# Entry
Amino acid sequence: MRAVSVNGDAIVVTSLLWQTTATALRAGDEAMLIDSPYFPDELEVLPTVLAQAGFEVNALLATHGDFDHLLGRLAFPELSLGVAESTILRLQEKPGEAQRDLRNRDNEHYVTRPRPLGLAGTQSLPVPGKLGLGAEELELQPAEGHTDEGMAVFAPWLGVLVAGDYLSAVEIPMLGPGGTVAEYRATLTRLAALVARSETVVAGHGPPSSREQALRLLDEDMDYLTALERGEGRPRLPAGRDNTHQRKVHSDNLARCGGAASR
# Structure
């Protein structure tokens, strides 16, 4: 795990697995953690790492309901977890899904944990909407397409956008269960306005990006979605994201779209 300060009041922690990010934001004496790293030792040291940097975390958020973004409760079991209303519906309609997915991945990677993931008391947040942090307010915007639920979180006083599983420098757009090209495109359109107001954009996987880098990623992702809609079997993938695994992601995307490769 590595931790990088992208602002005096914003720290991005990156897990060794999937380059999964967690972002700590601070306003005055209050701090909030958005999303989570994966490995148990990363989660164990996370409170100490943040406290040493002056971030006393008193609230948790998750951008969406995929298990690798919900693990903040394992680092801060005394805190409740806030998620979008749409994510609450996913957790209610598919009880135990996140825990099962986590167990399956843990078994795959030979990971053992000191306690199971508990999501009782998870709080629903209205999205779009605003959420107070100290004397400041976070802006919450809907972010569907990767899944059929979720949100992006913008801290205007810091110029930091936490985008969830969008605008990644290491992943092409990925359509998970319930995700659609139309919703993904709509989310990118909404994010464009927030990126223009940002200094730093934090994707759910991969390194933080500058405004200019994030706008380039957004354009590349829009172009990819167009190729996906056309059913292209071998589209040109963006530099840094054209590898065997991302080609498999594209094949999975095609299957979810019900499209056959046309070229």
